[in-house]
Amino acid sequence: MSTALSSTEAYSLLSLSLAAVGVLLNTFTGEGEPLIASIAFSCLAFSSCYALIRWLGNAFIRRGFKGKDLCKLKQTEIPETMGAVCAMVYLFTIITFIPWPFYKDIVVATSGGGNRDVIKELEEVETGRLLHRFPHNKLASYLSAILSLQTIVLLGIGDDLFDIRWRHKVFIPAVAAIPMLIVYFVDFGVTQMVVPIPLRPYLGELFDLGWLYYAYMALLSIFSSNSINILAGINGIEVAQSLVIAVLIVANDVLYLSPFTAYPHPATDSHLFSLYLLLPFIGVSLALLKHNWFPAKVFVGDTYCYFAGMVFAVDGILGHFSKTLILLLLPQGFNFIYSAPQLFHIVPCPRHRLPHFNARTGLLECSRVEFKKPLARPVAEGLKVLHRLRLLDVETDENGQVVSSSNFTLINLWLVWFGPMREDRLALGLLAFQTAVGVAGLLVRHRMALLVFTADNWY
Ligand code: UD1
Ligand code: MG
């Protein structure tokens, strides 16, 4: 891989970074302007990540972080685990950002310039409009988000180094989620769920899920980090699907922020919090996508997939919109359920399920799993039913025995439906699908919610 930045790239990244630094310095003259600062930080994160991916590529290869691109004629080795670079730049960014959202509170609480002469003011403050205590709970949320994300990055790098077994690594996101769940418990602690109208006669208006709510949130972190990792295998798909999800969450956040809605909305703060976590994520992901899109120059590694999933889980849980998040993860959910027969070894699961590259046509076809041993009768019948529903491509021999089928992933199913195609067209198709489902999900969330709930909290 050519590691040097071209002069156009170098100048563009440099000017972007300088502009971002200028904006950051400027925020100190006002009240800190955290949202503007966050955008500037995200631009800085983008340029640093872009340059570091280039500069570190060869070092990663030397350390053995490399992989063969299986869907190419010439299977050259390219750097893998570039998600680790993204994650590091991201963590550095959100850690450096910490003072900005609290700038106003710090300045007011210390009356500026670090003087702690607030005691006198407190009397007027107690009765007056300036009752201003430092929001320790918000800082705790933010710090717990960082802690959870750091833990998941450790898992990801461990997995890329040692290929941890599926049954072991599946629980690690739940451990990583503990810091944020504790903060949720102390700070918010709402474990009640608003019951949809049709169910109210049975359950009442609010239903308390109690500790099950925490189990649900832990499961959500397990699900979102693993589900991105298994909707993978073609150039660009891991990063691009994460970007689509991130951009849709940002769109949803913006709905809650002025000037689109009455300010201050009760949810304003949690949606701002969500933006602070997502904008830098979009920055580093764009830099990665540039290098991972077809034909890929680097692979993202499991680190990226876990990290991206955890960013969404942390964001959704601490931003209090976990149900909306599930709507945006529907394609991943489908892929997860559809994969279940292979994940739980009801049918054999090969090490790789990515599509098959046909060297003659240069197109991708669905990859297949051969059943060396005959399948149990009910399983075989089940596969035939799926075949008739066009949800699988099953091959039978003259005796009607099932001998092979397409692998159980959404990517292969797409190829079963639309026939062989080039790798980038396949990725674009899947991304269009992800976007369409996500937009529909948000529409349902905000328009149809009124049919099953009495109020949509946007208004
Ligand atoms: C998951 C999937 C596996 C899929 C793999 C591809 C499950 C249970 N596991 O495994 O079926 O094959 O992701 O990422 O669904 N690669 C490419 N082109 C790409 C991306 C990856 O050829 O665009 C290959 C490279 O050889 C790379 C390897 O996949 O080295 C990475 O696989 P890894 O992420 O370790 O696989 P898993 O996450 O364990
Ligand atoms: Mg992977």
UniProtKB/TrEMBL annotation:
Q: Which UniProt keywords apply?
A: Endoplasmic reticulum, Glycosyltransferase, Magnesium, Membrane, Metal-binding, Transferase, Transmembrane, Transmembrane helix
**Hey, what's the signal peptide range on this chain?**
none
Q: In which pathway does it act?
A: Protein modification; protein glycosylation
Give the EC number(s) listed in the UniProt record: 2.7.8.15
Single Gene Ontology BP annotation? dolichol-linked oligosaccharide biosynthetic process
Q: Where are the transmembrane segments?
A: 12-29, 35-61, 82-103, 139-158, 170-191, 211-232, 239-258, 270-289, 301-321, 426-444
Location(s) in or outside the cell: Endoplasmic reticulum membrane
InterPro entries documented for this protein: Glycosyl_transferase_4, GPT
Gene Ontology CC entries for this record: UDP-N-acetylglucosamine transferase complex
| Top-level EC class as recorded in UniProt | transferase
CDD domains given in the database record: GT_GPT_euk (cd06855)
Tell me yes or no: is Phosphoprotein among this UniProt entry's keywords.
no
Membrane association type: Multi-pass membrane protein
Pfam families per record: Glycos_transf_4
From which domain of life does this come? Eukaryota
The family database entries (PANTHER family) matched by this protein are listed as: UDP-N-ACETYLGLUCOSAMINE--DOLICHYL-PHOSPHATE N-ACETYLGLUCOSAMINEPHOSPHOTRANSFERASE
Q: What is this protein called?
A: UDP-N-acetylglucosamine--dolichyl-phosphate N-acetylglucosaminephosphotransferase
Q: Which organism is it from?
A: Paraphaeosphaeria sporulosa
